[in-house]
Design goal:
heterodimer, A: Rossmann fold, Rossmann fold, 2 domains, six-stranded parallel beta sheet, 13 helices, 32% helix, B: 2 domains, six-stranded mixed beta sheet
Chain lengths: 373, 367
């Protein structure tokens, strides 16, 4: 009889606001397929789940230390846990996480050096190149939801809910996958209930202008657009991250109540060569602990030297936008990941996954660290 | 393992409908089945029977009508009622059948004791369609629209030096892709050339119902629009989003892009009218209509106001503009579904199965 495959699920231990863990529903699926499950003590408690919830879905679930979860055949953790944690893994075991091979060459090299196999969740793609595990919708919608909540508080007289106000003007930079969801979310105030409420009171709606890199490089046109923008969304995927799309000087042209929404979350990295700056110069980078920044927030002082920041507006920025609504997010990820884990269990691990195999074999094979060059 | 038989009749729609499944997909299906192609299958895309057969003993050709007699029939767009009646009871039709909006077709399939899987109803656990090409709907429509606009303007630069402005109505799946297509002039190649010349770019302005219903705001927006895109999914299809009189606000060179392709069904209850009032409906044979086109009135009922006209691009099957790319895409999407289907056969497909089996089960003919 084949050895049972074990899965370790450590908690993420990142910022306090990072509450996401996979739900009992996924553990039920793995348990039914005969896998051994090892959850870190307290798994799911940030979302209100107890050990009992997991045990009722998967009765043989083991609750162990953080370190023990890293000792299993597969270690499943949504965000990369850090080199220190990965060092605890057994050689030949497999890490399943958002690993971002193309933009993290040092991480990739380190994992290979440790002799660890990996499946990068962001590299799991179908035969037409669509990501299988993704929640880009939540990136767009959650970011705009927070932006409109903020705008509601700071919008000048007669107020956002006054039917006689002008249409809200949203400018979305970037029309890729995230930008497309941002446009849809913006038109609906980032929240379907708000949208319906606004429609009911007869409020003038939202007008969204989408621009891409062939227009953002025309300063006079962009400056004109910015002057009339209530919400500016950065959903760009820049080829050259050393140059901002919107220099800080242009931020000064925007209305004083304007809200900047950072969905790209490119970091400031002055140690890289060339340096990496954010798409909108002089805005801070947020996370799940703090994702709303008012002008004058102390965080502006901590931006790297040389970054212009004198022009400030309200900013919403979060490294993990889907994590704003952790349970909704993990329902989606769990369902997307379930057939992948099923394929691994049914084939007794990664070694039997074939590049020319069935759909999920092909998808897994494309996402393997050992397939990445 | 049981070997099934699958018939592939080609679509007998307008002449411009060239699409057929590609040889790779047909070869793949012979892992599970003997495949029977209608004579001439794929020839409008330049494929001969030899291209399909490639020496494979499980691929045959036969008269088109006979392909409907196989256990499974795969045809992309729904066959006619007469063709459905050629299928023997118990056999299974796989096609874009649009169950929710075609009650008569559902009734006929049941009456004939047929089984069916509607490709447009195959959805995953998160309700995402697995066989779709919304991207091609938007990109192909905008590609044609910018071709026309480029001709009308003699280039993509406007005299006032402003970027090209497109007004997109609706931001569902198609609308979202339309926005991306607008910002790249409907063609990455055209966009790259435009950028090399440091052109002024293009802007997509999107509005939903909350603005589209307001004539004051719409007048302002329509007066600036070089391209007007209908990508709406209306809750009430008996009323247009843009009444014909509003079209007078558009500049004379403006191009209307119809991606919603709702038909005029005036005898239905309630009646269905098009989202932009008074525009014609095109197909793969003819999808560009100039304002003075004598064929304008062929698809616009006389009771519908249509005095205000701008060049309109409209096609019932936008993905079919680039048939090979389209069928390559659909073939990739359908492969894992066919694997799941033929591993068990239609009758055994259930919601308790694997990922693709569950998706197929949701697309079965409703009880």
């Amino acid at each position: 009889m084949a050895k049972k495959i074990s899965f370790g699920f450590p908690k993420m231990h990142l910022e306090e606001g990072e509450r996401r863990d996979f739900l009992p529903e996924l553990m039920g699926v793995l348990s039914d397929l005969g896998a051994d499950i090892y959850l870190e003590h307290g798994y799911g408690d940030g979302m209100g789940f107890s050990e009992r919830d997991y045990l009722s879905a998967a009765p043989k679930t083991n609750f162990v230390s953080n370190e023990e979860t890293y000792q299993q055949d597969f270690v499943v953790v949504l965000r990369y846990p850090g080199d220190e944690k990965v060092e605890k893994m057994r050689s030949g075991s497999c890490l399943i996480s958002m690993l971002h091979y193309p933009t993290r060459p040092q991480r990739t090299a380190y994992l290979k050096k440790l002799g660890i196999e990996a499946i990068s969740l962001d590299s799991l793609k179908d035969d037409v190149g669509r990501r299988i595990v993704e929640n880009l919708r939540a990136v767009g919608w959650n970011g705009l939801e927070v932006a409109f909540q903020l705008l509601q508080k700071i919008y000048p007289e007669p107020g956002l809910e006054n039917p006689h106000r002008l249409p809200i003007k949203v400018t979305v930079m970037g029309a890729g996958a995230v930008g497309m969801f941002a446009i849809q979310a913006a038109i609906r105030y980032g929240d379907e209930d708000t949208w319906r409420r606004m429609a009911k009171i007869g409020a003038t709606g939202v007008q969204v202008t989408a621009v891409d890199y062939d227009l953002t490089n025309h300063p006079e046109i962009m400056k004109q657009i910015l002057k009339y923008t209530d919400i500016l969304v950065d959903a760009t995927q820049r080829r050259d991250t050393s140059i901002p799309v919107i220099p800080n000087e242009w931020v000064g042209l925007m209305r004083s109540h304007a809200v900047i929404v950072d969905l790209s979350v490119d970091p400031y990295d002055c140690s890289a060569s060339p340096i990496c700056v954010k798409g909108i110069e002089g805005i801070p980078q947020g996370n799940l602990d703090q994702y709303i920044f008012t002008p004058g927030d102390p965080i502006y002082a901590s931006l790297p030297e040389g970054i212009h920041r004198q022009n400030q507006r309200h900013v919403v920025s979060c490294y993990s936008w889907p994590g704003i609504h952790p349970k909704d997010c993990m329902v989606i990820y769990g369902r997307q990941l379930s057939p992948i884990l099923r394929a691994l269990i049914e084939n007794n691990g990664v070694k039997n996954i074939q590049a020319e195999g069935h759909f999920f074999h092909r998808a897994i094979h494309r996402a393997l660290l050992s397939s990445w060059h | 393992m049981k070997r099934y038989s699958i018939g592939f009749p080609h679509m007998q729609k307008e002449l411009g409908e060239k699409r057929a499944f590609l040889p790779d997909f047909i070869q793949f299906l012979t892992r599970f089945a003997d495949v029977y192609l209608a004579e001439g299958y794929g020839d409008r895309m330049g494929f001969s029977f030899s291209d399909y057969r490639q020496g494979n003993p499980h691929i045959f050709q036969m008269e088109r009508k006979d392909t409907f007699s196989k256990e499974y029939v795969i045809i992309f767009r729904a066959p006619s009622e007469e063709e459905i009646c050629w299928m023997p009871p118990g056999s299974c039709l796989i096609s874009m059948l649009h169950f929710p909006t075609r009650p008569q077709r559902v009734a006929l399939l049941k009456e004939r004791k047929l089984q069916a899987i509607s490709l447009d109803s195959i959805v995953d656990d998160n309700n995402i369609r697995l066989v779709e090409n919304m991207r091609a709907v938007a990109w192909n429509g905008l590609e044609v629209a910018f071709d026309v606009l480029e001709r009308q303007l003699g280039g993509l630069e406007k005299e006032n030096g402003e970027p090209v402005q497109a007004l997109v109505l609706g931001v569902g799946m198609v609308g979202k892709h339309a926005v991306e297509a607008v910002t790249k002039f409907g063609s990455v190649e055209r966009n790259n050339n435009h950028m090399k010349k440091n052109g002024n770019g293009s802007v997509a302005c999107c509005v939903g119902r909350n603005i589209a219903a307001n004539p004051n705001h719409m007048e302002k927006l329509l007066k600036q629009a070089d391209i007007l895109v209908d990508a709406t999914q209306r809750r009430d299809s008996s009323k247009p989003v843009i009444p014909n009189e509003w079209l007078a606000w558009l500049p004379s060179h403006a191009v209307i892009v119809d991606l919603a392709v709702d038909p005029y069904l005036l005898n239905a209850n309630p009646p269905t009218v098009r989202g932009i009032e008074g525009i014609p409906q095109g197909n793969l044979d003819k999808y560009i209509f100039n304002p003075d086109d004598p064929e304008w009135d062929l698809t616009v009922p006389s009771s519908i106001p249509s005095a205000n006209r701008r060049t309109t691009v409209s096609c019932y099957s936008w993905p079919g503009i680039h048939p090979e790319a389209c069928m390559n895409h659909y073939g990739h999407q359908m492969r894992p579904l066919m694997e799941a289907l033929f591993a068990k056969g239609f009758k055994q497909i259930s919601l308790n199965g694997g990922y693709f089996e569950r998706a197929l089960a949701r697309a079965k003919l409703p009880d």
